[in-house]
Design brief:
By secondary structure, the protein is of the alpha/beta class. The protein folds into 2 domains: 5-52, Orthogonal Bundle (Helicase, Ruva Protein, domain 3), CATH 1.10.8.420; 57-198, Dna Topoisomerase Vi A Subunit, Chain: A, domain 2 (3-Layer(aba) Sandwich), CATH 3.40.1360. 40% of the residues lie in helices and 12% in strands. The protein is built from 7 helices and 7 strands. The strands form 2 sheets. A 5-stranded mixed sheet has the order 4-3-5-6-7. It has a two-stranded antiparallel ribbon with strand order 1-2. Helix 1 packs across helix 2. The protein is elongated and about 70 Å long. The N and C termini lie far apart (63 Å). It binds zinc ion. Zinc ion is lined by residues 57, 59-60, 62, 68-69, 71-72. Keywords: DNA damage, DNA recombination, DNA repair, Metal-binding, Zinc, Zinc-finger. Belongs to the RecR family.
């Protein structure tokens, strides 16, 4: 006996999400059927809107409805410092501390030789171009995660950018080795920005 087509399709859709197997997808599909119709409509609309109305900022790579994003467009922010992060969620975690007032650059990944990810596979070229064009930027803080790939990326950026006369620093330890920026608590993040070390 097979499920009716609409629920079979819904189960199939849920299995496309990361970490969701057939069993969980089936449970979510039946849960969806039990939800109020208004909630389901709103859920479906938010899925479509998230995909249709969002883009990446052409300057920093942040997710945004407008290009440039609100951070890049905010002239009251410190225009001399760029904090480089792996993912948009890292930017959000640091932004939510309210303690950092400079600009960002989102790499959308890290260097990972084992996974075959080189400098051309992440958002590094646009960072270099940005730094060349914008002479106000004097310091680059590398806020990649405290694991082997994050460290390798930080070293690469340091070697690439220091010869251009930029100060390159690394978020301080206090972020436990192997930890992810977006899971760190606010106090730890604030301390890691304040206590950043030169590379
Ligand atoms: Zn931006």
């Amino acid at each position: 006996m097979q499920y009716p087509e609409p629920i079979a399709k819904l189960i199939d859709s849920y299995t496309k999400l990361p970490g969701i197997g057939l069993k969980t997808a089936t449970r979510l599909a039946f849960h969806t059927i039990d939800m109020d119709e208004d909630d389901v409509t709103s859920f479906a609309q938010s899925l479509v809107s998230a995909k249709r109305d969002l883009r990446f900022c052409s300057i920093c790579g942040n997710l945004t409805e407008t290009d440039p994003c609100v951070i890049c467009a905010d002239v009251t922010r410190d225009q001399t410092t760029v904090l480089v992060v792996e993912e948009v969620k890292d930017l959000m975690a640091i932004e939510n501390t309210g303690e950092y007032h400079g600009l960002y650059h989102v790499l959308h990944g890290v260097l990972s030789p084992l996974a075959g990810k080189g400098p051309d596979d992440i958002n590094i070229e646009s960072l270099v171009m940005r730094l060349q064009k914008n002479e106000a930027i004097a310091e680059v803080i590398v806020g990649t995660n405290a694991n082997a790939e994050g460290e390798a990326t930080a070293m690469y950026l340091s070697r690439l950018l220091k010869p251009a006369g930029l100060d390159v620093s690394r978020l301080a330890t206090g972020l436990a080795v192997g930890s992810d920026i977006d899971y760190a608590d606010e106090i730890t993040l604030i301390k890691s920005v304040e206590g950043r070390t030169k590379l």
